[in-house]
Amino acid sequence: MNELIAKIKEMSEALLSDAAAQAEKGNKAAGTRARKASLDLEKVLKEFRKVSLEESKK
Predict the structure, then answer these.
(1) Who is most buried in 1, 16, 26, 41, counting CB within 10 A?
(2) What residue numbers bound the domain in which 7 lies?
């Protein structure tokens, strides 16, 4: 579970960095990376929810 949390943190930081680059500098490539990262992060967050529910049942 700790590995999953670390992965979420890393992916969130990358997403925020790219989103800021798009918003502040108008970097279109960063916007594309941010949108892709948001989809990848969604998958990892769903996995976290699943693991978290399993842990709470123990």
Answers:
(1) 41
(2) 2-56
**The model's pTM:** 0.85
CB 28 within 8 A of CB 22: yes
Tell me how far apart the alpha carbons of residues 5 and 57 are, in angstroms, rounded to a whole number: 19
pLDDT in tens, 6-46: 999 999 999 999 999 999 999 999 999 999 999 999 999 99
Spatial contact of 41 and 12, defined as CB atoms under 8 Å apart: yes
Distance between first and last Cα of the chain? 14
Is 3:46 a contact under the CB 8 Å cutoff? no
